[in-house]
Amino acid sequence: MSYFQYKDSPYTIRDDLGTAYRGFWSQLARPGSWWAGEQRIAIAQETRNAVECEFCVQRKAALSPYGLQGEHDGDSKLDNIATDAVHRIITDQSRITQAYIDDLAQQGLSNEAYVELSGIVVAVFSIDEFHRALGINLETFPDAEPGEPSHYRPDKAVAGIGFVPMLPPDAATGNESDLWHNEQTANVLRALTLVPDALRDWMKIGAAQYLTMEGMASMSQQEGRALNRMQIELVAGRVSAINECFY
Amino acid sequence: MLRVSAKTNSIDIDLSAINGDAGAAAMGIEFGEQLMKFAESVATRNAEDLKIARDELLEVAGELVLVDAAAVAANFQRMVRIADSVGIPVDNMDGDIGKQVREELKLSRFVTAKNSE
Asked: Which domain of life does this protein belong to (chain A) (predicted)?
């Protein structure tokens, strides 16, 4: 099945968007570093369940996000720990804490598995949000491919900033040499590097939705885009402000 | 980045557009007001507001702008969740432009400011 064809879209969708989304769907179906294909699809499905979850609405309104007991909506194929992590990232991300991530690890959701889960959640959510923004139906998920996760962890990932270990700026070498060059990086790029493929996935989607890495450094208009840089940053800034993004 | 891109292009803008001031959004940025309202409606996830904002942007700017704006908005629905789900701090809290923007927009009111302390 060929995904993201947009034959019924009322608007012309740039080819690079469909290509990026198809590429991610293909990756999503395969075994990752810490989750099998079937589990990755389950995380993706849970991302959609979280958007409609009534318990998440109640929790978002609660003074403390960690005291309220209840069950998330949707027929999750994940365990309760992973299901809750997905829902928090979608509906109450600003109140995620180091203590919560440490507690997940104690309950069996390792930092590595959490980072891969986060990468899937944000990618699926972002792709879905593009469709919702245009009033286009969401794409169906691909069928999972068989196989085991690789359990690949980059040797140089270290704890220090943020809630999980990350690659330092000088660690984009060896298997990770494609992630950035000359130590030119940023914390948001390093955020998911405990699972390098999670960063690779978001860079490909980000290059189509926002800007390429090279494009970010240039303030002139990018070829093939209808928005100039100020228009892009106005949209980016307003969305970030509503999401209470300090970063 | 809005401040930097405006400076680079020698255009005066009013940064309070980021906090939802429609008049400010119109200053120096083509379709600024409609883009701001569209971005706002994507982020707040109100279906009715979104349809209105989408139709308004489409009418004044056309479908190419609408599709690009949807892509950027969708991307930043993601970025905040990456940053907050792993608690990354701001890279450089001491830079002049960053300090100025954070003060101007009163960003320290956000819960996740604690991740950069």
From this structure: Bacteria
pTM over 0.90, yes/no? yes
Does the beta carbon of B1 lie under 8 angstroms from any beta carbon of chain A? yes
Q: How far apart are CA A70 and CA A241, in angstroms?
A: 29
Q: What is the pLDDT of residues A74-107, one digit of tens each?
A: 788 899 999 999 999 999 998 999 999 999 999 9
Is-contact A4 A18, C-beta < 8 A?
yes
Distance of alpha carbon A97 from its chain centroid, rounded?
18
Residues 6+ apart with CB under 8 A from A28: A37, A40, A41, A44, A120, A123, A124, A141, A142
Contacts with B113 from chain A: Cβ below 8 Å: 246
Domains in chain B: boundaries: 2-86
Interchain contact A219–B (C-beta under 8 A): yes
The CA distance from A34 to B104, in Å, is: 42
This complex has an ipTM of: 0.94
Tokens of residue B37, six digits: 């309202």
Angle at B34 between CA A22 and CA B16, to 5 degrees: 105
